[in-house]
Structures are given as C-alpha cells and as structure tokens.
Fold:
Amino acid sequence: MTELQDKLRKLRTLKDKTDAVLITSSDPTFTYFTGTKTEGGLFYYDFSKAWLITNEMEFGRLKKESFTGIKTDMMKREEIDKMIKGSRLGIHLENLSAMSFRKLGRIAKTTDITKNIEEARMIKTSGEIKKITEACRLSMKIFASVDKTGSEQEIKARIEYEIAKAGKERAFPTIVASGSRVQYPHHTAGKGSGFPLLIDFGLFNNHYCSDITRTDGSKYEGLLMKAIERAEEAAIVGANAADVDAAARKALGLKAKSFITSLGHGIGVEVHERPYIGPKSTDVIKEGMTFTIEPGIYMNGGLRIENDYLMTKKGSIKLSHL
Structure:
C-alpha cells in the first residue's frame, strides 16, 4: 500500500455522508494528502480517484512532486464548479476561509469533516514516521554542530543558516532566549546573551517537522528531567493526554505554578496539531502518534526541555536524543 492509499483509506468512513472531499492548498491537510505545496490549488477525492487541481504555472512541478497515484490536472473555475455542483461535499471548515466557504455553499451541500481530518492526521503512516524521524536526526546534528556563543540573534542566525545549508526549511522562527528572558515561552531573539540559554527550533523534512528545545545553565534542570521521566512513564497507549500533563505537573511540586504552558502537542505537517497534551485535553494517546513532551519552569533562571516521541504498543520512543 502506498502512502497515498494509506491516507485515503482513513476517509472511507465519510462515504456514507459525502460524495467527495475538497481541500484547499492554504490548508496543511492539502500537503498531507498530496505530498507537495502550492498556492491556489485544490485536492479533490471522490472515493474512486484523487485529484490535484492546479493552474498552468504550477502543473509541471506539482505533477513531478506529488504522490504517485494522484491525477494532477488543470481545470478552470467553471469546470470545478460543474464537477461539484449539487454534491455532498466534505470540507475542512477549520482551515477554510470565509470567502471560500460562502462560494462552495452556493453550489454544493457542504459538510464539516474537521474532526475526521484531525483524527486521520493524528495517527501517522510509516512514511510519515520516517520523515519525522529524519527531521529529528537532522535537527540533532545541526544543534550539536552550531556555535552557541554570542548574542541570541547570532545563535539564531547560525541555526537557521545550517537548516538552509542542509536543504531544509525552518519549521518556525527559531527561539533563542538568555538570562531572565527564558521566562517568556515565545521570546524573540535579541542582543542579549549569557545563561541560562534556551534554544527552541525545528525544521521541515519533506513537509514533516521536528520541534526540539534545550536549555543550558539552569539550576532547575534536575527537577525538570524528573517531570519528563514521569510524563514518559504516563504516556502509554490508552492514557488520557490530560493525565500525562498532570503527571509532569505533580513532579514539579511547588514549581508547577511556573509551568504556564501545556505539556506538549502533536507534530506532523504542522508544528502544532493533535493530540494536544494539556490540562483540558480530551485526546487519548494512541499507537502511531508523534508528539512532543516539553515541560518548562518559566521564571528567572528557569528552562524548557522538549523532545519528540513516537508512540508504539510497547511505549514511547524518543526521536530526539541530544
């Protein structure tokens, strides 16, 4: 079974309530189903054939880059409208613009399949796991090789240069925080320097990402490692994500009040996707999920440590060893 077939199989339950699924290229789910990126394109699946619809400028590139098995074609707006007119159309409403939603609603009977899409993307195929594993391996190699002296901006520039040099793209703007600035989860790198030194970065490998954080020079590292160990023990198949979060907070004791973020999140074609591992999460940990565990103590002298994991029947496998 190809990666595309493996992913399309997850949509079969929609056949009873929809005639086809339509995803716009502004949605990361487009990349999930096509294996490529573009602007102004569409992914269309009518349960017999998968189509990547694009324009003349992008046709040649996308036909070469997309998954084997997708019919790549050029169609005018009138032809697309005719194809979907009057049909029961499944749409990923959460990532669809209001304008596109109104246009589709005029010609088709739309059904929101956001829940189905999220559940499909949570469980990774073997192909996805390979790409994420490689993203983590490359990230670790880059982190180990980069000079971490100088200002936050200088360190950030070196990391992002090495990502580009490796032929990859950053998954998000690299976070480098030093001194008292480690207390801000999404600090923007500036001219500051010194310790503790927090570095949070990731890269895309064939559209799948890594997300790793390390902090050097904090006196709370031992306590945070204990929280990570408790979370790893709690993260088993069938566990409630909220309980995994609670295990880490309990291990932090009085410092839990300075843990102001959730414990983790899924990673895939997006840096933040389900499962969400936090106090209010309703997600359940399942085999085939890839996610982060990243407790933090957000105070002067604090830190965050983040690793990426794959959930298996026998427990979690850590993909990021630094």
The chain has a mean pLDDT of 96. The chain is about 35% helix and 25% strand.
